[in-house]
Design a protein that fits this description.
There is one protein chain. By secondary structure, the chain is α+β, with helices and mostly antiparallel strands. The chain has a five-stranded antiparallel β-sheet with strand order 1-3-4-5-2. The longest helix has 16 residues. 27% of the residues are buried.
């Protein structure tokens, strides 16, 4: 599989299609099983509150993975991502109801680099708060 987006067709400021991702307690249980991260802050409301959190929170790596989906869906090839990093700024609080939480992610090409790569800056929010800072990916385009 190769990137579907051409370097020549992308300019600084190109916006990626934004996406919204739902996160429920069931999602967290599934992720815990897949990742092996069974920290009680991700499933036990009483424990999460006792350690100072407002409620159960989503796994940081889950949040990070949801955010990069905006880039991988846009480029068409997950292997095109050559670098990715974030700073966690706020947790995604996941209430124990049928709706859970949502993560809204938008991306924009911030720089055209060498070797057919671009830097994409991501903005991720949940509940109106920025949840990731310095969220950036370097992507190799066709």
């Amino acid at each position: 599989m190769a990137a579907k987006i051409s370097y020549a067709d992308v300019e600084v400021g190109t916006e990626l299609p934004p996406q919204t991702f739902s996160v429920t307690r069931a999602t967290l249980v599934q992720y815990a099983g897949a990742s092996g991260d069974f920290n009680p802050i991700h499933w036990n409301e009483k424990f999460a509150v006792e350690v100072g959190l407002p409620d159960v929170i989503a796994h940081g790596m889950f949040t990070m993975a949801e955010a990069i989906r905006v880039v991988t869906d846009w480029v068409g090839d997950p292997a095109a991502v050559v670098e990715y990093g974030v700073r966690f700024t706020k947790p995604v609080v996941v209430p124990n109801d049928d709706k859970g939480a949502t993560i809204e992610v938008a991306g924009k090409v911030a720089a055209k680099l060498d070797d057919n790569t671009v830097r994409v800056d991501l903005t991720a929010t949940s509940g109106g708060q920025k949840i990731l800072g310095m969220s950036r990916a370097v992507v190799r385009l066709a």
